[in-house]
Amino acid sequence: MRTTHTAAFVSLLVCAGLAAAQVVTPPGAPKPEPEAYVPPPPPEPVAPPEPPVTDIEFDTLIERDENGALIRLDQPVGLASIPRNPLIAEDQWPRVGEVLAERSRRLRELAVENTDIMLAIENGAIEEIIGVATEDGRLIMESTRELIQPIIVTQPPHVELVESGVLTERQGLMNDRIMREYQSVLLRDVADSFDPTNEDGAAEIDLIVRSAFEQQIHEIRFEFDKVLHAVGTNIDKVLPAAALEPSERSGLSGDIRAIKAALTDEGRIRFVVEMLSKLTAEQAEAITTAALDHC
Fold first, then answer.
1. Which residues does 266 contact at the CB level (< 8 Å), separation at least 6?
2. How close are the terminal C-alpha atoms of the chain, in Å?
3. What is the distance between the alpha carbons of residues 266 and 264, in angstroms, rounded to a whole number?
4. Of 170, 184, 195, 230, whose CB is crowded by the most CB atoms within 10 A?
5. What does residue 64 show for φ and ψ, rounded to 5 degrees?
6. pLDDT in tens, 245-282
7. Which residues are registered as beta bridge partners of 64?
8. Is 69:189 a contact under the CB 8 Å cutoff?
9. How many CB atoms are located within 10 Å of the residue 107 CB?
């Protein structure tokens, strides 16, 4: 009897242990709510295309006198065109001024290094070449080019501004357009001045050559005029640089008086050219070099 009860008790314990060993799966976590739909941002607005520079209005350099003749620029066209460029922003002008000031300094130094050539041009060397080689256009071109080769400035100012990163390519193209408009009108005016009754064409060759080369050297002559002006207004300070002998200094006394008494800048520059032309190339360059400090 005890055995039966014992067996039943063991059986009960085994069943209870099996029941306790069963794993009960917990209920699953609730599913998250789906995120609210957020539409993508709208695309960035596309800027309208910029108009070509040929469609942009600008303040022209073309001005005519009462007779309809083109008024020639006192300033080189490459410089005169920059302030007329409507694409240059206000905040660009200080940097533009810095680059142009540095360019001006370099050209003055180049002119002074070639004082002999600059004085020859001031004294009519190009006209002399034309007079000797009349009717031979090729010879005139070759001889004149040989004369001015050391002082030719190949890049106009706006190209230097673009290459230095101050102006964009588009701004440079605008400047080029302003400059070329004036140059083309100038060329047409020269052509219109031809004498149709002139059969040999010599005068026409003279005008074409003179106009072409004047444009090429206009900027460096413009800078050399600043040097000549500085010589004239500081004659007593720069003249000692030439280390003149007393007799040489005495021979220039009339020129010095004329320079000091000149009533206009143009007249003073002319007297300075006359004085420097009486000196050796080395003496003249010494004086123009000293004048650089006063420009």
1. none
2. 137
3. 5
4. 230
5. -125, 150
6. 999 999 999 999 999 999 999 999 999 999 999 999 99
7. 70
8. yes
9. 20
